[in-house]
Predict the structure.
Amino acid sequence: MSFVKTAAYAIMALAVVLGGCAANERNKTAGEFVDDTVVNVKVKTALVNQEGVDAADINVETYRGSVQLSGFVDNDEERRLAIEAARRVEGVKSVRDGLTIK
């Protein structure tokens, strides 16, 4: 089993154990937490697999399917590739660009 899948399963198990049950603006249900964690792992994996993107310099945060990318890229083309890769991931509702060119 790949490291990414193993990490995703471990995070999902932890989310189920530690997740809350009530949803509001600040808290997510356990299901929402797991969904966002899965999307987060998939987006990070897509960035790692995207040629022309240095995923090590890009942070991914997901809240109810909305993904925020932050960190550093070398140029506008790398920014574009990162955003496109994130948008193609199943479960992503929107992508916000917080990337900064080095």
About this structure: The two ends are 35 Å apart (CA to CA).
